[in-house]
From TrEMBL:
Entry's family note: Belongs to the prokaryotic molybdopterin-containing oxidoreductase family.
Protein name in the entry: Molybdopterin oxidoreductase domain-containing protein
GO biological process: cellular respiration
One GO molecular-function entry: molybdenum ion binding
Keywords annotated in UniProt: 4Fe-4S, Iron, Iron-sulfur, Metal-binding, Molybdenum, Oxidoreductase
Gene3D superfamilies associated with the record: 3.40.50.740, Dimethylsulfoxide Reductase, domain 2
GO cellular component, one term: membrane
CDD domains: MopB_CT_ydeP (cd02787), MopB_ydeP (cd02767)
Cofactors required: [4Fe-4S] cluster; Mo-bis(molybdopterin guanine dinucleotide)
Positions of the Molybdopterin oxidoreductase domain: 126-500
Length: 774
């Protein structure tokens, strides 16, 4: 008999481990969280180095947690520690004493390394020296920094146009490096600056800017403590911003009601045990969601409309008690049209579209009706939907009815992902800079920056595929695995003349590469950064617009690492040479000088060097938070908007799939193979399904299946997944990112923001068929 073998797939190895699963948890954190975190420090062989760093993480004068963008408290910080399990894991991952050396690359070919899973690749340790893969080469070879910069400059200067290069940014890069990086791209002559925001909260910015006049959130931590209602929609705080749960708990202690809207009953939405409070350690769970609404994937628009409709009815019944009429009249535009649309909607139909009972929606309205201090917090569950921009504008509509933006205890809270993704954007990493921003750069530096908009992530991939782009330079991140349509993107990357990655750890984007490829190893957040004998600090902006300093303390794992700022400056000097009017050397030598020039270019950074040295840093101005809506609409009014409810018809045996994160990963970095809160152990290739759907298709738990997507008439297959029965609405399934990215069509994007719609993928599920090789 022929031996069946899975064909090796370098972009996405399809191999199973040994799934164990138990019922999902109904509460997050507690002792297991603490234990899980510390075992990572031991596994990375850094119990002491790690503990020393932990005492410095998120403390005044210490370094900013490299994981998520949740802010630190404004007031006193806990001396036991201002971090969560994921902060510890992120630290263990980067502070590891394991090393990927030149000898490692000599022993392992690129093809062999690509057969490893992302988990296995990440566990190899920190990169230690610059490496080069020549055309046709099988192994990365050592290269000097000088030669590496010459190679980059040679390729960049040989391009037919600066727009044939792309400069990608992931969200960890500091304000200082980000500013210089975009300055270099502009002086080189391109706005091709796609970034991880193009896959993350671009949708939020696109929705908020024209409606409230700022593309960021409006709340502070303190608002969580004063709110009457907090709605958490399309976000999983227990896993992805764990210290947000402390803020939710504090709000609840002060009387706030919490509504959770999510197709999955995520542990962090249902209950919470605070590991830093004694009762948490003793295991007394708090059930803090007052109402959980198990909405269907993409059913949120129908739900938000139904809430609006019922609130309008209640306002008619008790005039003035539900809506903030004075605010609506004076501060907003478009309310009449918004309210008039409800004539076209039927509550019953909206409830069906949301996948909820009318009574569940009424329960939400009962909580909201007579409250005026409301926060809506959201994440990828909304932003990665085709109509994500519409849905966030619908949230704005509801908040405007309540006068709930621009006053204490109320507002919008897009929970940002990467620790400095918000800062990257503030520092002008953006493929669509405004004319005002460009004029400022021209005036301060004396060169004419390009005006044409550049590529975002999706258009960048298409341009590479068409060979309109020849060089990709990535400041951090994992371009191949984070982006959609893995096979298409891999083809695109392989067409490049040169791919360059500035990285801390090995990842799949180093292994699916251009004709030539470079890996440039850099310092991480927790590393000591000494320039000319002086320890430097950098700065970052949190999800709530607080800019603070960050100073690493750990001895770097190799003396060959260069900090990101130096990498940018040396690339700029080598590439631009005499053409440049910027004093790159001065910036490379002293970060204060970078901050001085940021202050000249970007509003809100007055006395940057002085204020960044203050305890806790400083808040950036936020007009909407102060009740000023700089929308340009008559007298600067916030805008109501009208959006449709999508139909989402599914054909027979078709499912809507959302890709999501486990508790044991940070994006494409896989810390471990558990998803503790969802009861999954030792496997990532799982598909969460409703039992009814399993019965209909004749699947049993742990059956092996293949997943198919047929968008644009192309068959995309993700093979070898295991079925796990789960509390999820019928015809909805959930898989993990990045394993399922192969199914997300490059054309499946969010309207207006152009982000991949990775939470809305039409798939079919069939019994697994092994591929016969030979
Ligand atoms: N530990 C850890 N922390 C992280 C990250 C990580 O990977 N690991 N990543 C960081 C980054 S970059 C980001 S952007 C954030 C992401 O943090 P989140 O926004 O929480 O991201 P996800 O885990 O992708 O999914 C969010 C939730 O959306 C729900 N969802 C899916 N579809 C829908 C829908 O149609 N409607 C609603 N209402 N909900 C839906 C899912 O069930 C899931 O609970 O986390 C940051 N923090
Ligand atoms: N299907 C699907 N796809 C998604 C998502 C989803 O929910 N579903 N989420 C999207 C979201 S929200 C995001 S933000 C993107 C994330 O996209 P990216 O930001 O591109 O990916 P990461 O996995 O965060 O990047 C990890 C790599 O960054 C490098 N790194 C870590 N720290 C540093 C550092 O300090 N400096 C430098 N130079 N490098 C460093 C390491 O080498 C590591 O391998 O993925 C997106 N893709
Ligand atoms: S909540 Fe986010 S920023 Fe804070 S310690 Fe945890 S992972 Fe780090
Ligand atoms: Mo993100």
């Amino acid at each position: 008999m022929k031996k069946l073998k899975v064909v090796p797939n370098p972009e996405n190895p399809e191999k199973l481990l040994d799934l164990k699963y138990t019922p999902a948890k109904t509460w997050a954190a507690g002792i297991p969280a603490v234990a899980a975190a510390f075992s990572d420090l031991i596994e990375e062989k850094i119990p002491f180095r790690g503990m020393r760093a932990l005492f410095s993480m998120n403390q005044n004068g210490g370094f900013d947690c490299p994981s998520c963008a949740w802010p630190d408290p404004d007031d006193e910080r806990s001396p036991i520690g201002e971090y969560c399990e994921n902060g510890v894991k992120a630290l263990a991952e980067e502070a590891t004493s394991k090393r990927v050396t030149e000898a490692f690359f000599a022993e392992n070919s690129v093809v062999d390394l690509a057969q490893l899973t992302d988990f296995e690749i990440g566990k190899k340790g920190r990169l230690t020296s610059p490496m080069f893969l020549p055309k046709g080469g099988t192994h990365y070879q050592p290269i000097s920094w000088d030669a590496a910069f010459k190679k980059i400059a040679g390729h960049l200067n040989a391009l037919g146009s600066p727009n044939e290069a792309i400069f990608y940014t992931s969200g960890r890069t500091s304000n200082e490096t980000s500013f210089l990086y975009q300055l270099f791209a502009k002086e080189f002559g391109t706005n091709n600056m796609p970034d991880c925001s193009n896959m993350c909260h671009e949708t939020s910015g696109t929705a908020l800017l024209p409606t409230i006049g700022i593309g960021k959130g409006t709340v502070k931590l303190d608002d969580f403590y004063q709110a009457e209602v907090i709605v958490v929609i399309g976000h999983n705080p227990g896993t992805n911003a764990p210290r947000m749960m402390t803020a939710l708990q504090k709000g609840k202690d002060n009387g706030a009601k919490i509504i959770a809207i999510n197709p999955l009953p995520e542990a962090g939405l249902m209950g919470f045990r605070n590991p830093q409070a004694l009762n948490g350690i003793l295991g007394i769970g708090e059930h803090y969601s007052d109402l959980y609404l198990p909405v269907k994937i993409n059913g949120d628009m129908a739900l938000l409309k139904a809430i609006g409709l019922l609130l309008a009815r209640e306002e008619r019944r008790t005039p003035g008690l539900v809506f903030e009429q004075e605010f609506i009249r004076q501060r907003t535009s478009g309310a009449e049209d918004y309210l008039a649309q409800f004539e076209n909607y039927k509550l019953e139909e909206l409830a069906v579209a949301a996948g909820l009972a009318i009574a569940e929606i009424e329960a939400a309205v009962e909580i909201l009706a007579h409250k005026k201090k409301i926060i809506f917090a959201w994440g990828m569950g909304l932003t990665q939907q085709p109509n994500g921009v519409d849905m966030i504008r619908e949230i704005v509509n509801l908040l405007l009815l309540k006068g709930s933006i621009g006053k204490p205890g109320a507002g919008v809270c897009p929970v940002r992902g990467h620790s400095n993704v918000q800062g990257n954007r503030t520092m002008l990493i953006n493929e669509k800079p405004t004319l005002q921003q460009l004029d400022k750069i021209r005036d301060v530096f004396g060169f004419e920056p390009p005006r044409a908009h550049g590529y975002n992530v999706v258009s960048a991939i298409k341009a590479m595929h068409k060979q309109d782009v020849k060089v990709l330079f990535a400041m951090g991140g994992n371009f191949l695995s984070a982006t959609p349509d893995t096979t298409f993107t891999a083809e695109a990357l392989r067409k490049l003349r040169l791919s360059v990655h500035v990285s801390t750890k090995l990842n799949r984007s180093h292994l699916v590469h251009g004709e030539e490829a470079l890996i440039l190893p850099t310092l991480s957040r927790s590393d000591l950064d000494i320039v000319n004998g002086v320890a430097q600090f950098i700065s970052t902006e949190s999800s709530m617009g607080i800019v603070q300093s960050s100073k690493g303390i750990l001895k770097p794992v190799s003396d060959q690492l260069l900090n990101e700022t130096h990498i940018v400056c040396r690339m700029a000097m080598e590439t631009l040479g005499e053409r440049s009017v910027v004093d790159w050397k001065a910036y490379a030598d002293d970060y204060d000088k970078i901050r001085d020039v940021i202050e000249k270019c970007i509003p809100g950074f007055e006395n940057y060097n002085e204020r960044i040295r203050q305890k806790g840093g400083f808040y950036l101005p936020n007009a909407a938070r102060d009740g000023e809506f700089m929308t340009g609409i008559a007298g600067n009014k916030a805008a109501f908007t009208l959006s449709p409810v999508p139909l989402n018809l599914l054909s027979e045996n078709e499912y809507l799939m959302a890709t999501t994160r486990t508790h044991d990963q940070f994006n494409t970095t896989i810390y471990g193979l558990e998803d503790r809160y969802r009861g999954i152990k030792n496997e990532r290739r799982v598909v969460f399904m409703n039992q009814q759907d399993m019965d209909r298709q004749g699947f049993k738990a742990e059956d092996k299946v293949d997943l198919f997507n047929f968008d644009d008439g192309i068959e995309r297959i993700a093979r070898l997944f295991l079925v796990v029965p789960y509390a999820i609405p019928e015809r909805n399934v959930v898989t993990y990112f990045p394993e399922a990215n192969v199914l997300v069509s490059i054309n499946n994007v969010v309207k207006e923001s152009n982000m991949p719609a990775s939470k809305f993928v039409r798939i079919q599920i069939r019994p697994h068929q092994a591929v016969v090789s030979e």
